[in-house]
Amino acid sequence: MEVLWSLVVGVLVAAGIYLLLERHVLRVLFGLILLSSALNLAIFTAGRLTPGLLPLIGADATLPPDGAANPLPQALILTAIVIGFGLLIFALLLFYRAYYQTGSADVDDMKRSEEDE
Amino acid sequence: MTTIWLTLPVVLSLLTAVAVFTCQRRKWLCDLISATSVCATLVVAALLTYEVILNGPQAVAFGQWQAPFGIVFVADFLTVAMVLITAIIGAISVFYAMADIRTKHSYTAYHALMHVLLAGVYGAFLTGDIFNLYVWFEVMLIASFGLMILDANKTQIDGALKYVVLNLISTLFFLLAIGLLYGATGTLNLADLNTKAALIAPESQVLLSGLFLFAFAIKAALFPLFAWLPASYHTLPNVVVALFAALLTKVGVYALMRVFTLVFPLHESGWQSTLMWVAALTMLTGVLGAASQFDIKKILSFHIISQIGYMIMGLAVYTPLAIAGAIFYVVHHILVKANLFLIGGLIERRYGTSHLKQLGGAYKAMPWLAFLFFISAFSLAGFPPLSGFWGKFIVIKASLQTSDYWLAATALLVGLLTIFSMSKIWNEAFWKKPTNDELESKALSRATLYLYSLPIVMLAALSLLIGLVAEPFYQFAEHAAQQLLVPDAYIQAVLGGAP
């Protein structure tokens, strides 16, 4: 199971990086989105896939039962998703503003900050 | 009692951000809250430093979840040094902002975001949990995004675009590294990782530490991943760029220092020789980039990169002396670099441009400013007895001790080239007669001029103090380096138990 998901992550990361290298800013954004989702999956896989019990501790026990899923990676991913969502929305609006001002969505046309006035 | 001091810098900054955000158009109220807050944080940081010097590293666990399960805040010597210097820069920036950007439309939003940024920086320095470090990085990042695009013009948006994309990639890789590290060790606590990361298979260790190195190298603007810095920094308002130049890249350097001493000791990680090359090339490319520029802000932006090289050189040599030198250098650099940007900002405000070809005659107009620039610029280049000299001296001496002569030679050459760039600013902006007669200097009101010069004088005085009375500062850095290389006290503070 882990092997399969590792491959999925690998393919998604490869696709994300390919899109990042594109010239259209929207594709760059899609690349970032893909990369961020792929990395969340990677954390999930690294935390071991245990198709097991809920990680709930019984009223009379002090430890979760054997074979319970590890809740921590999910908590990490949840945090990362929320943060990633905020950052990507910001990036989308920024890209739109840049497109609106330069009239072009080609990254090659966005050199204003590196030119000498 | 210390438990409160440890969290106060973050809490105070976040509360202030909220309070300032509600001010909207009442600028005087915003100024009042903002100034009170930074002064209070400065006191807190000073008390925290005193406490840690007296009693050694301190830690606090949140919500009664003891380490390694809960999130902890830890303060050792390096942390308190960074927190104190951040508090100083925070205070300086707030006062300078009152002079520099008070007429801007989003003035209060600038203040609110500056406090969020400071909270993120404090959090990143204080946290003892690697995932929490990621969260503070993001807090810092989103605040810096906000500061970049407030009242932005076209150039600023264009610079922000590059900054945003490259920094997002950096945090994504940081996140990946954390996920894999957790998969390999089952813990996220830095002190706990110290023992557990050593148990990972050596090949996996190289891969994991490589991922961390890549992520932090973008943050710290190391060669060849620094492209975002010269593309974006020079487009920003001066107070913002001074704040960024002082703090953002240094958080990356701090993270490198922490991870490559506590989690993956550098000499065992297999990246030491790579990091030496990276340090040398960072120094060289930064200073050569600066030599080709003709704008004060662009020159100074490139110099940030070159100076980061010295700190990484200290880390890469990895002896107690070298790490002490790197820590000394970070503190010196934050003061001096922020000050140079502030001086550049005053010149730009006065003459309406920061382009060297159009400037001139500032020496005649403001001899005191020329003197302060002189101190900061020569300190940056490393003239004795200024603070930069000691930083460079320690780092280079350490590299000679380990027989890395080429590294020492590069560092000395870069120092020489730094003087070239600084004397270029001196000649063009201060010394020469203005080339076009239309260059008129705007008269600033007395109060504004005081608000501008107070931070500049303070920073120059601090830099002079570190240079002239270097001994206690050096001893502090030596202690901090000792704690980094032999982290027993740190681990004991977090996890408890016998030393």
UniProtKB/TrEMBL annotation, chain A:
Record's keyword annotation contains Nucleus: no
Transmembrane annotation, as ranges: 6-21, 28-46, 75-96
Gene Ontology cellular component list: plasma membrane
UniProt entry tagged with the keyword Transmembrane: yes
Localization per Swiss-Prot or TrEMBL: Cell membrane
Keywords carried by this UniProt record: Cell membrane, Membrane, Transmembrane, Transmembrane helix
Membrane topology: Multi-pass membrane protein
InterPro entries: CPA3_antiporter_subunitC, NUOK/Mnh_C1-like
Signal sequence annotation: none
PANTHER family associated with the record: ANTIPORTER SUBUNIT MNHC2-RELATED (PTHR34583:SF2)
Family stated for the protein in its record: Belongs to the CPA3 antiporters (TC 2.A.63) subunit C family.
Entry protein name: Na(+)/H(+) antiporter subunit C
Organism: Marinomonas aquimarina
Automatic annotation (TrEMBL), chain B:
Record membrane topology: Multi-pass membrane protein
Family in the record: Belongs to the CPA3 antiporters (TC 2.A.63) subunit D family.
Keyword Membrane annotated: yes
Localization (cell): Cell membrane; Membrane
GO biological process, one term: ATP synthesis coupled electron transport
Database matches in Pfam families: Proton_antipo_M
GO molecular function: NADH dehydrogenase (ubiquinone) activity
Listed GO CC annotations: plasma membrane
Record-given protein name: Na(+)/H(+) antiporter subunit D
Keywords: Cell membrane, Membrane, Transmembrane, Transmembrane helix
Ranges that cross the membrane: 6-23, 30-50, 70-97, 109-127, 133-152, 164-185, 205-229, 236-257, 269-288, 300-321, 327-347, 368-386, 406-426, 447-470
Domain annotation NADH:quinone oxidoreductase/Mrp antiporter transmembrane: ranges: 129-417
